Amino acid sequence: MIGINKNATQIMAEIVSNKKVGAYNHIVFAVGDIASRSKPGNFVAIAVGGSNSAMVLRRAFAIYRTFDKGSSGGLLEIVVAPHGEGSTWLTNQLPGYKVDLIAPLGTAFGIPTEPVRALLVGGGYGSAPLFGLSEVLKNRGCRVDMVLGASTAMKIYAPLDGKRSVNSLTTVTEDGTTGITGKVTDVLAEIIETNEIDIIYSCGPMGMLEAINEISSKLDVMHQCAIEESMACGIGVCMTCVLPIKGDDGQIRMLRSCIDGPVVDGESVVWDSKRSIPKGTWGAH
Amino acid sequence: MFDYKTSLGQAEFSNPIFTASGCAGSGRELSQFFQLSELGAVVTKSIMLKPRSGRATPRMAETPSGMLNSIGLQGPGIDIFLEKDIPWLREQGANIVVSIAGESVDDYAVLARKLRAVSGISALEVNISCPNVENRGQVFACQPNTARAAIEAVRRNIGGELPIIAKLTPDVTSIVEIAQEVVAAGADGLALINTVLGMVIDTNTMRPKLAGKTGGLSGPAIRPVAVRAIYQVHEAMPHVKILGMGGVASGRDAFELILAGASAVSVGTATFGNPNAVMKIKEELANELISHGFDSLKEAVGYAHRAEGNLL
């Protein structure tokens, strides 16, 4: 338990580059040795708005990838969708500006010891952490297939070098502007069966993760997903980002997605509990 | 030599900067960022008799210079807390203020009995003002008689010399009246203020944003409310020690609460934005006091109440 946040440090990190890619911004920070401590699935918490901002809470972003160049040159990259005021502020900051950043935080994707057949599924900018994961899996001798989905082509995040890191890439858009028309879940069952998938890794909106879990559960495939629930602190003290999660003992507990997540076993999440505490949850009253 | 020491009841603290209950987890989460023993005290998350899941999500909404939370006192319950958290905090050399919350007067009595023999605790914060309960009638600090009953129950059962600090809400017609009740009932000090009841409506879904509908507003947005409450209570009862809190994000903010009458200051929401906020504020407040010519923290407590024309 004393290991909570044990790899995390808080630094002022300089923006090295900030480029628009489709509907998103790809931002690179100089983070020193944080890069070597970060794993696919971990996230960063960044203070937004500058000092004396009316935005008092950090914003959490999945780490897209890191480059470990020793303590002076480590780089950390994220992909930001300018949704709200905080993320929009961040996408407007120029190289040279320093942001207050805490990383690495949260759990990482579990990497199998055997070379398995993995399917990576990303929704929108949720694809970002999957490319770093793909590289790790490939280095372990895994076969990696990837499915990326979004409402429209502009919102598919799939950089060229990312595409090279996978054995196959299927894109799906709801409006049909690129790839297959529909949702990622429309194509999963076929890929799982054809490619004899052993494990699914997913990242994206909660609705998508839930739909993926239904399929993985039915087809008896392991599923690790990076969940998201709105966070105030990112370091485990605020207790706002909790989710009902079933432990190995069968007990459901409200666990923090910043400490016990963001990466969790899809089977352990009590998905159908929107805006309520599931019956039998530890301490339910 | 500047004297940063402070006291609440018989409890002495090396400096006046504390965490705020519910804003420092179990302490372990923050210990990665600084030594907990550097704090005036760790105020633990309000603990109840039994394990508690807390409320459903969404539990949080950011607001201008603040946030709404609706956690609902999630926690492991007093027995696990005493077994796991207290020994760990003691090992860290932290000064510990235990915060307790109950659903009934009897809960407070039982909690006090469970804590009376526990060593290594400096004081008890009795949270009778958590806004995140289903029934507004459960907010003991909203009525003089229920506030009194809860504090009396703790007083009768705590024994010994452990100071009792009653945590009050500003969501009342007269916080001075409630403060006087709980002091008469045996509180040694007051924690002012708890969060302010609020609501955010999501204009996309056109429903309350929080699953629990209402939540407690915290952060710099409520600081003037805290300053007002501390000022009023200190004016009415200058000898009662106050642990001040409400939107403190800098040494300047902490200084404001001290001037209003706080003897110590808890930092809550600022920690969410910056895990090192408490350490930053501790240093800034000392500089603030020294640059204004104070030789000790104690001299500055309630200094805003001095007669017209008096400057240091």
Describe this structure in words.
The complex is a heterodimer of chains A (285) and B (312). Chain A is α/β, with parallel strands linked by helices. Chain A folds into three domains: 97 residues, Beta Barrel (Elongation Factor Tu (Ef-tu), domain 3), CATH 2.40.30; 110 residues, Rossmann fold (3-Layer(aba) Sandwich), CATH 3.40.50.80; 55 residues, no CATH class. In chain A, 20% of the residues lie in helices and 33% in strands. Chain A is built from seven helices and 15 strands. In chain A, the strands form three sheets. Chain A has a seven-stranded mixed beta sheet, with helices on both faces. In chain A, strand 13 and strand 14 form a beta hairpin. Chain A is globular. Chain B is an alpha/beta fold. Chain B has one domain: TIM Barrel, CATH 3.20.20. Helices cover 33% and strands 20% of the residues of chain B. In chain B, strands 3-16-15-10-9-8-7-4 form an eight-stranded parallel beta sheet. In chain B, strands 5-6-14-11 form a four-stranded antiparallel beta sheet, with no helix packed on it. Chains A and B meet through loops of A and helix 1, strand 5, strand 6 and helix 8 of B.
Essential attributes:
heterodimer, A: 285 residues, alpha/beta, Elongation Factor Tu (Ef-tu), domain 3, Rossmann fold, 3 domains, seven-stranded mixed β-sheet, six-stranded antiparallel β-barrel, 7 helices, globular, B: 312 residues, TIM Barrel, eight-stranded parallel β-sheet, four-stranded antiparallel β-sheet, 10 helices, 33% helix, 2 iron, 2 sulfur cluster binding (chain A), flavin adenine dinucleotide binding (chain A), metal ion binding (chain A)
